[in-house]
Every structure is written in C-alpha cells, then in structure tokens.
Amino acid sequence: MGKAAVVKAFEDIDAALAVLDAEVDGSGSDGSWEADPLRGLADRYLDILAGTRRMEAGFAGLKARAAAEFASTLAAVAAPDEPVQAQEAAVTAEIGCVLTIGPRAAEALLNQSEMLTTVLPLTLAALQDGTISWQHARVMVEEAGTLDRAGAATLEAHFLDPDAPDAARGCPAGEMPASRFRHKARTWRERHHAESIEKRHAAGALDRRVEYAPDHDGMAWLSAYLPGDQAAAIWNRTTAIARGLQGPDEDRNLTQLRADVLAATLLSGGNEVSNGHQEGSGPGQVPPPRAQVLVTVPVFSLLGATDEPAMLDGHGPIPASMARDLVANGAGSFYRVLVDPRDGAPLEIGRTSYRLTKAMRQWLRLRDGKCSFPGCSNPSLDNDADHLLAWAQGGTTGISNLGQACPAHHKLRHSTPWTPTPASKDEPPGWISPSGRHYKSEHQDWEPPQWPPGFLPRLLPTAPSLLERAILPYLSG
Questions:
Q1: pTM of model > 0.70
Q2: In whole angstroms, what is the distance from residue 200 CA to residue 204 CA?
Q3: In terms of Cα–Cα distance, which of 170, 147, 196 is closest to 445?
Q4: 3-class SS at 334?
Q5: Domain ranges of the chain
Q6: Which fold would CATH assign to domain 358-439?
Q7: CA dihedral sign, ordered 198, 203, 208, 214
Q8: What pLDDT, in 10s, does the model give residues 350-373?
C-alpha cells in the first residue's frame, strides 16, 4: 500500500478507460448483437453512460474525502502558534493548485467536503456508491447547512434511507435531476426548519429588491426578489397573456412574448397589457397580480389554529398568513385546495365524467404538480391533460387514466415510442423509453398536517359536523 498503490490504481483506471473508449468506437464488439447490431450498439452506449454516471459520482465522493482528510492532516502537523486562518488559506491554495480551480471554488469544495464527511454520512455513502451525483450531494449540503445536526440527519434520512419512518415516496433522489431534487429538499426544509416559516419569510421580505445587469449584444438581465405568491402570480399572469397573443400571424415564441408582455406592462405607466391592449388602472398604479394558482392549505392552518405552511403550486411552501390572504382576497385567481387533517390527503375536488371536467383538470394538477416526464419542471398550469390509454383503445376518462405533460413532452409521447406507464388517483405515470428502460415519476411529498394544541385526532369522528361546518364555506367557494 502507499503511494505505489495509488499510482497502480490509477493506471488500472486508465486501462479500463481505454477499454471503454474502444467500446464507444465499436472496436470492442464481441458479435453478441449480430441479430440487431444497431440496437446492440445503442444499448451498449446507454450502459456506458450509466456506468460513467456511477463512476463520476464515486470519484466525486473520493475527491471529497481526500480534500477533507488533506485539510485534517495539515491541521494536525501545523505549528501550535500558526493562526487558523493562515492554515485554512494554505489548504485552500494547495487544493486550488492541484485541481486547477480558483480560490473560491477551492474554498467551496473544502466546505462541502467537511459537511459530507462530518455531518452527512448517508449522503457521502450514496455518492460513493454512485446512487446520487455530486450535484445531488451539493444540494443536500446547501439545504442541510441551515439546519442543526438532528435536522440535517432527518433530512438525508428522509431522502436516502428507505427504512426511515417518513421515507420519501416515488422516484428516488438519485434518479431525478438535481434541479428537481433541490425543489423537493427545499420543500422538506421549509416544512421542518426549527424556526417558523413566518419569521423567516418576514426577514426575507426585507431583502426584496430588483436587480439590473448589462449583458452582451445590447441586452441586459432584469431580476426581482419577491414574496413567492407575487412572483408566482406575475409569472403565471405573464404566461397567460403571452398565450393569448399567440396565433397563426404571431411569429414570436412564448418565451419572447413573456418578455415583451412584461416590458410593455412595466413601461406603460402601471397599466396591464392583455391580448395586446392596455387596461387602465389609474396613473402610477400597479394592479395587484392575479393568476390561476393552486394553493393547498392544511385545514387547521386555514382556520388559524396552526401556522403550518401551505403549498403554492409551482413554488413550494409559503407562510400560513400568506395562504390565508390568498384564499380571502384572491378568489378570482387562486384555487383553494384543503387537505384532510387526518392523513394529509387532498380533499376531493373532482368527479368522474365522460368529458374531462374543469374540476378533474384541477385534481390532475394537484396530483402531479408539474409535467410528469422525468426531470421536467414545467409547471402544471402550462401542461396538457392526456389519456394514458386512448379512449378508442378502451381507456376511461378518470384520474387514474390521465396524465399531464408539457407541450414538448406531449408531442414526444405521440411522435416517438416514449410511452407513459399507468397512473393512479394519487400517483402520476412513469415513462418507458424507446430502449425499454423504465423511469419512475416523482410524487408529491404530502405530509399529515399538524394538529392544533388540545385537538387530538381521536376526537375527529365524534364531532364531524363541527369540522364540516368550519370548512364547508371554503369548499363551496
């Protein structure tokens, strides 16, 4: 063992890479796919891609351990009177040089490596096993960084320990893109943070701002940091207006139309732009944002008995006070969905019908939350409802036979061999690729709501009329 063993191990890796390169070139074929050589080549390349993903993750885990151990070793041999900051600077400089990365990137890598090796053992193990990527591990580090150790341990157990009491359902963390995992991990963190979301939102709202950054070719970026309900409503309103402007004589795509609608609205003195026409709202007055947004509210939170976060479609957890305001003042734009106080399941808002009713579309949005295609983040408002098994082939018009795909993946389904798998009332469909590989769907991470103090679940069956009288106005409204 020792340095010679390290050199020999990397020589073996180089040899293995040469073998894989030969397979990519086709020179490593053994003739086992002679019956369908092109299909065999395609399957071989997918196997190489899958193996590369695992190896990249394993190397990332190895790099994190090596960086953390290097820092620990230098700290152990440092002179007693050497300042800590000087030790850290020396370690960062050495890591940056050996990896040819800048000082900020080296410092970030060391911080991430420290978290993985000391606070997040399940994440490091999953990374070394190749079941999650380095991008997934970074998400876990970032979301756990604001939690105490117990909270961080519960967070990674929820997503990485299948035997955890509240293990995440549906697609495993490592089988969804890191961007989708970030959304799920952030949602969990918002729900379980030791400090209430009301306090954190109040502090965050003080930092709201608009930023401007010039870019190339006479262009610039304009971004806004806003409360989640306002940002979601502005986005959906802009999208709705942009869709209304589309037509056979319109050569701008949806992305360009969104930008033009936003610019026209802001530059029109506070007047809204709808289908190309301005609607007066008074000089200098900006109309309140309104859009079709699902707000899923725990019933006791809606009644003010708890401050449990609600879920804003396309955004994630929001403070209960914000949800109550949306329910009270956004009736023309926000759809209220209550959840059962016993198990967290959404209360029924649709019914079976020959035709796809508006209520069924809303239930479909609630079940899936977004386009059901693996890795797609397209929000539910923009997606198409589609029969998984066509009506002509015996399919029914029920929630279990419906899926929602964004326009691009809806087209992919009907123009290629990509096929959705069966769904259920509570679970969206997965997908089967042309190569026959099955990709699982994501599931909404519903949780049982919090019960207010002194109101135990066992009391519910004895007083259903009281609860029904409390929530009936919201269900009917």
A1: yes
A2: 6
A3: 170
A4: strand
A5: 3-28+45-193, 209-279, 293-346+447-476, 358-439
A6: DNA Binding (I), subunit A (1.10.30)
A7: negative
A8: 333 335 666 677 777 778 878 888
